[in-house]
Amino acid sequence: MATEIPGPQTQRNVLGGQTFGNILMIAVPLFAAALLLGVWEVWVRLADVKEYLVPAPSAVFVALSDEPGRYANAARLSLTAALGGLAAASLFAFILAVAMAHSRMLERALYPPALALKVTPIVAVAPLFTIWFGFGLAPKVLIAAMITFFPMLVNTVVGLRSVDPSAHDFLRSLDASRWQVFWRLRVPSSLPYVFAGLRIAVPLSLIGAVVAEFLSGSAGMGQLILVSNGDFDTPALFGAVFVLAALGILLTVSVALVERKVLFWHDSSAGV
Asked: Measuring CA to CA, how many Å separate 244 from each of 83, 137, 214, 249, 250?
Protein backbone atom coordinates (compact mmCIF):
# COMPACT_ATOMS: atom_id res chain seq x y z
CA MET A 1 0.00 0.00 0.00
CA ALA A 2 1.52 3.31 -1.07
CA THR A 3 2.06 6.01 1.53
CA GLU A 4 0.63 9.37 0.58
CA ILE A 5 3.16 12.18 0.91
CA PRO A 6 1.67 15.42 2.26
CA GLY A 7 1.62 18.16 -0.34
CA PRO A 8 2.88 21.75 0.11
CA GLN A 9 -0.62 23.01 0.94
CA THR A 10 -1.05 20.38 3.68
CA GLN A 11 2.36 21.21 5.15
CA ARG A 12 1.50 24.92 5.17
CA ASN A 13 -1.77 24.14 6.93
CA VAL A 14 0.03 22.11 9.59
CA LEU A 15 2.64 24.82 10.14
CA GLY A 16 -0.07 27.46 10.23
CA GLY A 17 -1.98 25.48 12.83
CA GLN A 18 1.13 25.12 14.98
CA THR A 19 1.87 28.83 14.70
CA PHE A 20 -1.69 29.71 15.67
CA GLY A 21 -1.48 27.33 18.62
CA ASN A 22 1.75 28.93 19.83
CA ILE A 23 0.26 32.42 19.50
CA LEU A 24 -2.83 31.28 21.39
CA MET A 25 -0.71 29.85 24.21
CA ILE A 26 0.88 33.29 24.68
CA ALA A 27 -2.21 35.40 24.04
CA VAL A 28 -4.54 33.66 26.50
CA PRO A 29 -2.35 34.20 29.61
CA LEU A 30 -1.62 37.79 28.56
CA PHE A 31 -5.32 38.47 28.10
CA ALA A 32 -6.11 36.93 31.49
CA ALA A 33 -3.42 39.05 33.18
CA ALA A 34 -4.66 42.22 31.45
CA LEU A 35 -8.23 41.44 32.49
CA LEU A 36 -7.18 40.88 36.09
CA LEU A 37 -5.24 44.16 36.19
CA GLY A 38 -8.16 45.99 34.62
CA VAL A 39 -10.61 44.65 37.22
CA TRP A 40 -8.12 45.54 39.95
CA GLU A 41 -7.77 49.10 38.63
CA VAL A 42 -11.52 49.62 38.39
CA TRP A 43 -12.14 48.15 41.85
CA VAL A 44 -9.54 50.39 43.53
CA ARG A 45 -10.95 53.51 41.88
CA LEU A 46 -14.63 52.75 42.43
CA ALA A 47 -14.16 51.59 46.03
CA ASP A 48 -11.81 54.50 46.74
CA VAL A 49 -9.26 52.19 48.35
CA LYS A 50 -6.40 54.05 49.98
CA GLU A 51 -3.08 53.73 48.17
CA TYR A 52 -1.21 52.72 51.31
CA LEU A 53 -3.54 49.71 51.61
CA VAL A 54 -3.85 48.49 48.02
CA PRO A 55 -2.42 50.65 45.22
CA ALA A 56 -3.87 50.65 41.74
CA PRO A 57 -1.85 48.84 39.07
CA SER A 58 -1.25 52.21 37.40
CA ALA A 59 0.41 53.48 40.61
CA VAL A 60 2.57 50.34 40.75
CA PHE A 61 3.70 50.83 37.14
CA VAL A 62 4.54 54.47 37.91
CA ALA A 63 6.71 53.30 40.81
CA LEU A 64 8.45 50.81 38.53
CA SER A 65 9.03 53.38 35.77
CA ASP A 66 10.34 56.01 38.20
CA GLU A 67 13.26 53.84 39.38
CA PRO A 68 13.82 51.05 36.87
CA GLY A 69 17.52 50.82 37.69
CA ARG A 70 16.79 50.18 41.34
CA TYR A 71 14.52 47.24 40.54
CA ALA A 72 16.82 45.90 37.84
CA ASN A 73 19.82 45.86 40.16
CA ALA A 74 17.86 44.23 42.99
CA ALA A 75 16.45 41.63 40.58
CA ARG A 76 19.94 40.88 39.25
CA LEU A 77 21.28 40.23 42.76
CA SER A 78 18.36 38.01 43.75
CA LEU A 79 18.48 36.12 40.46
CA THR A 80 22.23 35.52 40.85
CA ALA A 81 21.75 34.08 44.33
CA ALA A 82 18.78 31.96 43.24
CA LEU A 83 20.48 30.47 40.18
CA GLY A 84 23.74 29.95 42.06
CA GLY A 85 21.92 28.04 44.79
CA LEU A 86 19.92 26.03 42.26
CA ALA A 87 23.05 25.05 40.35
CA ALA A 88 24.91 24.01 43.50
CA ALA A 89 21.93 22.05 44.82
CA SER A 90 21.34 20.31 41.47
CA LEU A 91 24.96 19.22 41.17
CA PHE A 92 25.18 17.93 44.73
CA ALA A 93 21.77 16.25 44.46
CA PHE A 94 22.79 14.48 41.24
CA ILE A 95 25.97 13.11 42.80
CA LEU A 96 24.10 11.81 45.86
CA ALA A 97 21.24 10.50 43.72
CA VAL A 98 23.65 8.39 41.65
CA ALA A 99 25.05 6.85 44.83
CA MET A 100 21.60 6.28 46.34
CA ALA A 101 20.15 4.82 43.13
CA HIS A 102 22.88 2.18 43.01
CA SER A 103 22.91 1.28 46.70
CA ARG A 104 19.95 0.74 49.01
CA MET A 105 22.31 0.89 51.98
CA LEU A 106 23.55 4.34 50.96
CA GLU A 107 19.96 5.45 50.43
CA ARG A 108 19.02 4.38 53.95
CA ALA A 109 22.07 6.21 55.31
CA LEU A 110 21.69 9.44 53.30
CA TYR A 111 17.94 9.90 53.09
CA PRO A 112 17.35 10.84 56.77
CA PRO A 113 19.91 13.71 56.73
CA ALA A 114 18.44 14.94 53.43
CA LEU A 115 14.95 14.87 54.91
CA ALA A 116 16.18 16.67 58.02
CA LEU A 117 17.63 19.37 55.79
CA LYS A 118 14.26 19.65 54.03
CA VAL A 119 12.22 20.15 57.22
CA THR A 120 14.67 22.55 58.88
CA PRO A 121 13.11 26.04 58.93
CA ILE A 122 15.05 28.54 56.85
CA VAL A 123 14.56 31.27 59.42
CA ALA A 124 16.39 29.10 61.95
CA VAL A 125 19.58 28.65 59.92
CA ALA A 126 19.77 31.91 57.97
CA PRO A 127 21.16 33.88 60.96
CA LEU A 128 23.80 31.18 61.43
CA PHE A 129 24.82 31.43 57.79
CA THR A 130 25.15 35.18 58.26
CA ILE A 131 27.45 34.69 61.25
CA TRP A 132 29.54 32.11 59.42
CA PHE A 133 29.68 33.64 55.93
CA GLY A 134 28.87 37.33 56.37
CA PHE A 135 26.34 39.50 54.55
CA GLY A 136 27.48 38.86 50.98
CA LEU A 137 26.32 36.45 48.31
CA ALA A 138 27.38 33.21 50.01
CA PRO A 139 24.60 32.91 52.64
CA LYS A 140 21.91 33.68 50.06
CA VAL A 141 23.26 31.03 47.68
CA LEU A 142 23.36 28.50 50.52
CA ILE A 143 19.78 29.21 51.55
CA ALA A 144 18.60 28.89 47.94
CA ALA A 145 20.54 25.62 47.64
CA MET A 146 19.10 24.34 50.90
CA ILE A 147 15.49 24.87 49.84
CA THR A 148 15.94 23.34 46.36
CA PHE A 149 18.14 20.37 47.25
CA PHE A 150 15.48 17.90 48.40
CA PRO A 151 13.11 18.02 45.40
CA MET A 152 16.05 17.65 43.03
CA LEU A 153 17.44 14.71 45.01
CA VAL A 154 14.16 12.78 45.25
CA ASN A 155 13.20 13.29 41.60
CA THR A 156 16.65 12.34 40.35
CA VAL A 157 16.75 9.14 42.45
CA VAL A 158 13.32 8.10 41.16
CA GLY A 159 14.35 8.93 37.61
CA LEU A 160 17.59 6.95 37.74
CA ARG A 161 15.66 3.90 38.93
CA SER A 162 12.81 4.26 36.43
CA VAL A 163 14.44 2.38 33.59
CA ASP A 164 12.74 0.05 31.16
CA PRO A 165 13.66 -3.49 32.31
CA SER A 166 13.64 -4.81 28.74
CA ALA A 167 16.00 -2.05 27.61
CA HIS A 168 18.26 -2.77 30.57
CA ASP A 169 18.31 -6.49 29.79
CA PHE A 170 19.02 -5.73 26.13
CA LEU A 171 22.05 -3.59 26.97
CA ARG A 172 23.33 -6.20 29.38
CA SER A 173 22.93 -8.85 26.68
CA LEU A 174 25.23 -6.74 24.51
CA ASP A 175 27.79 -6.91 27.32
CA ALA A 176 27.43 -3.19 28.07
CA SER A 177 29.35 -1.99 31.09
CA ARG A 178 27.64 -0.38 34.09
CA TRP A 179 29.05 2.96 32.93
CA GLN A 180 27.48 2.52 29.47
CA VAL A 181 24.16 1.48 30.99
CA PHE A 182 24.29 4.53 33.22
CA TRP A 183 24.91 7.09 30.45
CA ARG A 184 22.89 5.46 27.67
CA LEU A 185 19.88 4.32 29.69
CA ARG A 186 19.65 5.62 33.26
CA VAL A 187 20.49 9.26 32.56
CA PRO A 188 18.10 9.63 29.57
CA SER A 189 15.37 7.83 31.53
CA SER A 190 15.85 10.18 34.48
CA LEU A 191 15.58 13.42 32.49
CA PRO A 192 11.75 13.72 32.67
CA TYR A 193 11.97 13.39 36.45
CA VAL A 194 14.88 15.81 36.66
CA PHE A 195 12.94 18.43 34.73
CA ALA A 196 9.92 17.81 36.95
CA GLY A 197 12.17 18.52 39.92
CA LEU A 198 13.46 21.67 38.24
CA ARG A 199 9.91 22.93 37.75
CA ILE A 200 9.49 22.72 41.52
CA ALA A 201 12.97 23.90 42.46
CA VAL A 202 13.21 26.98 40.19
CA PRO A 203 10.55 29.08 41.96
CA LEU A 204 11.73 27.72 45.31
CA SER A 205 15.25 28.99 44.61
CA LEU A 206 13.90 32.50 44.10
CA ILE A 207 11.88 32.24 47.31
CA GLY A 208 14.95 31.06 49.20
CA ALA A 209 17.07 33.94 47.90
CA VAL A 210 14.46 36.52 48.89
CA VAL A 211 13.95 35.02 52.34
CA ALA A 212 17.71 35.05 52.85
CA GLU A 213 17.75 38.73 51.87
CA PHE A 214 15.05 39.40 54.45
CA LEU A 215 17.21 37.93 57.19
CA SER A 216 20.82 38.36 56.14
CA GLY A 217 21.08 40.35 52.93
CA SER A 218 22.21 43.90 52.37
CA ALA A 219 20.70 44.17 48.88
CA GLY A 220 18.35 42.42 46.49
CA MET A 221 14.60 42.16 46.16
CA GLY A 222 14.17 41.07 49.77
CA GLN A 223 15.82 44.20 51.09
CA LEU A 224 13.91 46.36 48.61
CA ILE A 225 10.65 44.92 49.98
CA LEU A 226 11.74 45.52 53.57
CA VAL A 227 12.75 49.14 52.84
CA SER A 228 9.51 49.82 50.95
CA ASN A 229 7.49 48.32 53.79
CA GLY A 230 9.34 50.42 56.36
CA ASP A 231 8.66 53.57 54.32
CA PHE A 232 4.97 52.66 53.85
CA ASP A 233 5.64 52.89 50.13
CA THR A 234 3.04 50.34 49.08
CA PRO A 235 3.31 50.96 45.31
CA ALA A 236 7.06 50.29 45.46
CA LEU A 237 6.43 47.16 47.53
CA PHE A 238 3.88 45.88 45.02
CA GLY A 239 6.34 46.76 42.27
CA ALA A 240 8.90 44.45 43.87
CA VAL A 241 6.28 41.71 44.09
CA PHE A 242 5.45 42.20 40.40
CA VAL A 243 9.13 41.93 39.48
CA LEU A 244 9.52 38.75 41.53
CA ALA A 245 6.44 37.26 39.88
CA ALA A 246 7.83 38.13 36.45
CA LEU A 247 11.17 36.53 37.34
CA GLY A 248 9.44 33.38 38.54
CA ILE A 249 7.38 33.13 35.37
CA LEU A 250 10.43 33.79 33.19
CA LEU A 251 12.47 31.08 34.92
CA THR A 252 9.63 28.57 34.77
CA VAL A 253 9.00 29.24 31.07
CA SER A 254 12.73 28.93 30.37
CA VAL A 255 12.83 25.52 32.03
CA ALA A 256 9.76 24.46 30.04
CA LEU A 257 11.36 25.55 26.75
CA VAL A 258 14.60 23.70 27.53
CA GLU A 259 12.59 20.65 28.52
CA ARG A 260 10.70 20.78 25.25
CA LYS A 261 13.95 20.88 23.27
CA VAL A 262 15.73 18.18 25.27
CA LEU A 263 12.78 15.82 25.75
CA PHE A 264 11.23 16.11 22.29
CA TRP A 265 11.09 12.30 22.25
CA HIS A 266 9.17 11.97 25.53
CA ASP A 267 5.43 12.27 26.18
CA SER A 268 6.03 14.71 29.05
CA SER A 269 7.05 17.45 26.60
CA ALA A 270 3.85 17.21 24.58
CA GLY A 271 1.99 19.71 26.75
CA VAL A 272 4.95 22.01 27.45
From this structure: 14, 18, 14, 9, 10
